[in-house]
Structures are given as C-alpha cells and as structure tokens.
Amino acid sequence: ELRHGPPEQGISLANAIDLLRHTPMERFLDAMAVRLNGPKAADAELTVNLVFTDLGETYVLVIENGVLHHYRREADPQANATLSLTRDAYLGLAAGAIGLTDLLTSDDITLEGSKLDLVRFFSLLERPEGTFDIVTP
Predict the structure, then answer these.
(1) By the 8 A CB rule, do 84 and 91 touch?
(2) What are residue 70's phi and psi, to 5 degrees?
(3) Contact predicate 33/26, CB 8 Å
(4) CB 62 within 8 A of CB 71
(5) In the chain, where do the E strands start and end?
(6) Which among 8, 10, 16, 7 has a CA at the least distance from the CA of 95?
(7) Ramachandran region of residue 76, left (φ > 0), alpha (ψ -120 to 50) or beta?
(8) What is the spatial distance between Cα 39 and Cα 16, in angstroms, rounded to a whole number?
(9) Helix, strand or coil for residue 83?
(10) Model confidence over 4-56: pLDDT tens digits?
(11) Cα torsion at 100, 33, 65, 70 (round to 10°)?
(12) Are strands 46-52 and 81-85 parallel, antiparallel or unpaired?
C-alpha cells in the first residue's frame, strides 16, 4: 500500500465462503450493523427475525433511530418479517454470492410477514468496496 496505493479491487467474500463458515453468527450481525446507512435509516423502525433452521438459533434484528441492534432470543411475534433459512443460505446472502431476490424465490427459505419490509430492511445496508487504505490515512 505504501508503494502502490490501495488495492484496485476489494476481496470477494464469495470466494471465502469456507472461511466464513467458521465465523460466529454474532460477528456477521455486528458487520451488518456497521454497514447500516444511519442517515437513510434514521426514520425506519423495522424488526426482522432470523431463524436458522439448521442451527436451532434465532436472532431478532431491530432498526431504530438509525442503528441496527441484534439479539439472540426467541422470535419477536410483532416483527415485520420472519426469515427462516439455513446458515449456508445466509452466508451466500452476506457474501453476495446469492441475491436477496434469488433467496426469496428459493426453496431454502421461508418468509412470514412483509416481503416489502424485508426488502426495505436489506436496502438500508451498504456493501463496502473493500478498497480502503489500511496504513495511510
């Protein structure tokens, strides 16, 4: 980086799926919270349940006041949407290997609640370029 500048292209998470399988789910949700566009989400109040059918785990994701919080607990019955999926399906979505539209039409997931609110939820997240400086400011 000091000699040649930052990379021209970011790392593809889709190529690192095997590595991502060993990452705790809470770290993915932390990364999701960092990717939230706060000003765009300032007036949004959305709750999404993520139910991982293969892990037996449920996470409640809440956007309020431009911040995304996540909790590992029972599904919120008042949530805008409940997305039941496998960890691999979520990893494909998080890595960009599978688009949300593809996932919603797949047999790998079950959606209860508002599809529109789920799409709105994910539209508030930005995908980082991955071409930032590490050493130089």
Answers:
(1) no
(2) -135, 145
(3) no
(4) yes
(5) 46-52, 57-64, 67-72, 81-85, 110-113
(6) 16
(7) beta
(8) 31
(9) strand
(10) 777 676 665 556 677 778 889 999 899 889 999 999 999 999 999 999 999 99
(11) 90
(12) parallel
